[in-house]
Design a protein that fits this description.
Layout (H helix, E strand, L loop, with lengths): L1 E3 H15 L5 H32 L1 E2 L5 E2 L5 H16 L1 E3 L5 E2 L8 H4 L6 E2 L1
Parallel strand pairs: 5-6
Antiparallel strand pairs: 1-4, 2-3
Length: 119
């Protein structure tokens, strides 16, 4: 299934919340497998984001790189490239997951995962 890097970021957070819940082993395993696939793409994207921060940011008083402290022109370049990164599509090969039990989660947790959930 094709998703954007922006969706990957949201899916990662949602999966972290879901896999912390108690549920049957079969469902836990399916969610863990999806989380592992999502994490691979997230790590790739995060490496590029860090590279962009190092390219366009400046060091703060603690020696950490920060885009927020960079001149406006450099911040704009960073955000332009970062948004482009978030909009890039990646392929995540995963079977649809059936949530076979009621889960006590907010709908906002499930929304980023809708492409991978089946009724």
């Amino acid at each position: 299934m094709k998703v954007t890097n922006g969706e990957v970021r949201l899916m990662r957070d949602a999966l972290q919340k879901l896999i912390a819940l108690k549920m049957p082993v079969s469902l836990s395993l399916k969610l863990a497998k999806l989380a592992n696939k999502v994490n691979v793409d997230f790590q790739d994207m995060e490496l590029v984001r860090i590279s962009l921060v190092n390219q366009y940011g400046i060091k703060d008083e603690n020696g950490n790189m920060s885009v927020d402290l960079a001149p406006v022109e450099e911040r704009n370049k960073f955000w332009s490239e970062f948004v482009s990164l978030l909009n890039q599509e990646v392929e995540i090969d995963a079977e649809p997951i059936v949530l076979s039990i009621p889960l006590d989660v907010e709908p906002s947790v499930l929304m980023p995962l809708l492409k991978f959930l089946k009724e």
